[in-house]
Model the fold of this input.
Amino acid sequence: MEITANPSISWKPPKSKEQVFDFPQEAAELEVPFSHLTSLKLEVLPELKCIWKGPSHYVCLQSLKVAEISHCRRLKYLFSPSLAQSLVLLEQLSIVCCDGLEHIIESDSGHVHLPLLPKLTSLEINRCSSLEYVFKIPLAQGLPHLKSVSISDAPQLKQIFNMAKEKNGVDHAIALPRLQHVNLYNLINLSCFCSENYPIVSPSLEKLILMGCPRLESFPIQPDVNKQIQLEGPIQVASLHYLRELNVSKCNRLKSLFSCMLARNLPQLKILEISSCEELEEIIEIDPTSIASSSQGHLQPISFPSLEYIWIYMCNNLKSLFPISVIRSLSNLKSINIYGASKLEQVFGYQGELNVEDDEKGIMVLELNKFEFLELQTLKSFAPMGYHFRFPSLSCFKVEGCPNLITSFSKDSKDIVHAITKEPQQVEYNTTEVFTTMDEIVDNRPTSNDIFWNRKDCPDMLPSYINVEETEDNVTQ
Done:
């Protein structure tokens, strides 16, 4: 094998091979073996136990950029600590169907000099049934170039990073400054992203997908506002300023997604999808003190200025989506779809106030184009009592299987849809010629609990919204 002329290996059987780099003592007389190797691909080697087990000075992988390992069922680890320290250029690491793999870097021997894997940008792990931790040794200086993490079908995985507290009691952060995409799928024993002593700092995160992680109890990348995270530079608080898409599914132990502080630092979030999270009680962990501080101007208010799509499916402990105080920040919201949340009582809940003087024309939600509320048996209202909304861009909506809904929907002469929540006995209908007691009145056309309205195909299916002042002026004339 001439490595200098061909700095890439795609290696298949002999299947009896137990280690990749196995050569006689005379190799020490050569130039450091494999120092020019840039790509390594190992496939279907059922007897392979290690890549190299000899003295570390015989093998150096200083030029390796891509490593793809698949169907090597007896591998317990990929790299010894000394071999890992030579991987200064490794960018892509893919591991598939290695059932015996317990961790990537052997942690039982040798002193580790940091940083490790300083150029790693992409990590993919799929169907490794014995993997308990991805990295089990200290990585206090983090993975500064890591952009993408995808881990799926690893039933024994408990944590991504498993680390112990430093002897001096000082916590370090796992710094992932360039991490953009995280996909965790079907990890039935994953309890957290990292040991609780090590917070994750990932300010560039854009897309987070969590699916089939039923033991996950807390948001995997979460800053703690009261904790000073010790990094190489100034003290920082982790945030998710660039997160654009969040997809969470089958994480049955999650009770909330965002702390109040984190919810104030999601300015780019566009897509929020949550499904089959049975214990989820609230999307934002409501802290009454924090809500009060926001309303008094002591803290930045919770807001989602870029949020466009909300999709909620079968979250049966959820009682509301957001506090009512959030509604004015949803300036780009286009679609809300909620299906089968059996305890949902309000779309926007009671926590917080809008601090709006009497808005006789209603609170404007400018961009909302579509909403669907389906099979929500306990849904009572769109918002708390007394709130009135206008949806000038709404093109269609569907309400089905919501027998307790008291919010009334109507359409005015300008085709703007109104949603008004009042106690049932307070609603008066267009049964007389002159109206004198209500600011907003809906006519007495019969409606059912199931409503389907489409601006294009059935524009007249909604009752008419009538304003008292306009009606009195017309009568006077």
Summary: The radius of gyration is 29 Å.
